[in-house]
Amino acid sequence: MKNLIVALMVTLFASSAHADNSFVVSGRVTNITPVYTQVNRQQPTQVCRNVEVPIYGTVQGGGDAAGSALLGMIIGGVIGDAVSGGDGNATAGGAVIGGIIGADRAQNGSRQVVTGYRTERQCSTEYTSVRETVVNEYDITYNVQGQIITIRVNRVQGERAYQGQTNRFRIRYQLID
Hints:
Number of helices: 3
Order of helices and strands: EEHHEEHE
Shape: rod-shaped
Strand order of the largest sheet: 1-5-2-3-4
Mean pLDDT: 79
Number of domains: 2
Largest sheet: 5 strands, antiparallel
Number of strands: 5
Oligomer: single chain
Radius of gyration: 46 Å
């Protein structure tokens, strides 16, 4: 016994080409139902905070000139003694030169230091996840020669459809043993 299977094509009939095992019918839209989907969306939010920012300044000298001179004299004397092999004049000369260099560094050396703080407003973008319901597809119900047929279509096709609209469909069939 042979069974007759009829399959509807989801796409609308657009061409006039016919096959031996198909025919064209018209159907009228009777109902359009949106199909909702839950989606997560990242919502940007600007967040601003007041923060303390250091203010840097240059400090001139300000070091301990006497301590730096004494340290320079000791290092200069040791180097002078080592270079001269124990000659007292070289040791004394090294100590004097080391003392002068140490005192000069303490008075003329500059450095960066924090001189204070100021309040500054800093902003950044943070994202929070928001769950929302959107229309993603539509179920369109047709009355095709007394048969009620529902076809799910994408959002764009569903938004273009209207009740009472007539569309043509190609029906294809196949005989199966």
